[in-house]
Request: fold
Amino acid sequence: MTHRTRFLALLPPIAGIAGACAVTEVRETAACRQTYEFGNYGCAVAAGRVLDSLGQPVVGALVGPTPSEDGIQFNTPYATTSADGSYSVKLTRFGRGESDLVWVWLRASRIPTHVDSVGVRDSVRVQLRVSPVGAIPDTAVVDLVLPPA
Reply:
């Protein structure tokens, strides 16, 4: 029995007390899930920060992908940046591709705060590695910079 196995074997007696069942949930949410819709061939993850040109975090920006360049479809999740400007998006691939590497444009958008203002956006071309269902994907770290509002 490995050290990790012994640790996990101790979780059931204390799960109700310490909320240790979250350990299992973290692993499950980190792995590419089988969604059973239109053929799920895995997932890719991008995470990072959105900063302004002065290096300050942009709070509340939307970050998400555009369609992949190889024509294979992904879902289009968007994340909202937190107080430190960080985000994380997991893309699920719904089509078999020739490679596990795919190019997408990752876009950050600042939502306008006034009716007469214009939203600001920027994007960057990113190569992501698609991991198969059940595997834990690598995270591509991508920071985006938006001009000040």
